[in-house]
Structure formats: structure tokens, C-alpha cells
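Case study: Lipoprotein.
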Amino acid sequence: MSLKQFYTFLLFIFLIPVLSSCFQVIEEITMRNDGTGDVVLTINLSQSKTKVASVMLLDSVQGHKVPSKQKIQQELSEAVAYLKKSEGISNVKSSTDFNNYIATISFTFKDVSNINNITKNILAQQKIKATNSSSYSYNKTTGVFSRKYQAVGTAKTEFNKLKSQDKAIFNTASYTSIYRFEKPVSTVSNPAANVSKSKKAVMLKSSILDLINGKINVSNQIQLSK
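Here is what the predicted structure looks like once written out:
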């Protein structure tokens, strides 16, 4: 599963029709020493909640149909149902805060590799093109957590096809990945990544436009202390 691609799915059902200002997408993975872990995916529109609330009262905006709260809940429920049937995935939950416009999906995995193909299949069901190739792995013996990311060459081309007002949606959008571990982090391969003071978390934040335009790569190899 590419977690960033999962956000693409959520963006299409929730954000694209209603956005008029900044938003955040946040990916959190908590790895345990035994290889199991938890994922929390969040889309946060709270900084734009007043504008979003106004748009939600409309039938359409900029040529996009505005989804109802019921439609959003339905789509999230379908995503949850799919995740519950996925191998190695359990404890799937979703939440929506329509006061602050925050949507979250969380689940537990037996092995981080269990999440690698989920988004690809979800996007295929929705007939949405993937924007990147991304995979995760964790070697319990060596204590190495890896995230491999490869942007799809057509992502920038597809973005350039959007109308100017649709492109503007992404001007202040940000993407943040946070990886937490039980052991301290020794090294990280991505120079843009920041290690927490506790040495047990790694954060990488970038603008979504930089990802679309290939100006940043979120691949990372994280070596834990032995």
C-alpha cells in the first residue's frame, strides 16, 4: 500500500470538491520490535473549516459536485470494509469530525508489508490513477525500516491538466509522515527527515506540490539501535 495514494482516494471523495484553502495530510506508522504495528491516516481541513462549512451548503463548486456528509461517511465505511477483508489487517476504524473537518482511518498490521498492495486495489476500484509507487518493509533482525518511494512520471502531466482554480487548492497543502519506534533511531537516509529528541520518532514534512513536481523524494531507510 502506498499510504500517500490512500490519501489520493480520500481527497477525491472528500477534499477536491470542497477545498478552497490549505489542508494537511498526515501518515503515522508505529512500529513494534516484533514487526507488528499501527497506521493512522489523517486529512485535516481545520484551518479552512469556515470556508469548507460554507461550501458544504452548496450543490457544486468549480464544476465539482459537493458530497453530502452521508456520502462521505458511506465512502469511508466502504474503505473500512475493504480494509477489514485485507490480509494481515485488523482493528480497522474511521472517524469524521464535521466541526473541524478532519477525517481519519486507523488499523493494525501483522507485518508492515501487509499494507503495500491495499491502496493500489482501492484506487483501482475507484478508477483513480496512482500518483506514485511506494512500499514499506521492516527487518526485525537488522532493525532497518524502509520506505521506498517512486513518483509516477505522469503525475505532473496529470496535474498540469487541471484547471487553474483546481491547481490552487494544492498551493498550501502539506504532507507529513511520522514513524515511531520502540528502539532509538541510529541513522536516517533522507536528509529532509528530522529525528525527535527521544530518538524514537522520525518526521518528514513537505509540500504536496513538491511531491507532484518531483522536487522531493520521501524514500527513507531508518536504522534502529541494536
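For the exam, be able to explain this: The CA atoms of residues 5 and 130 lie 6 Å apart.
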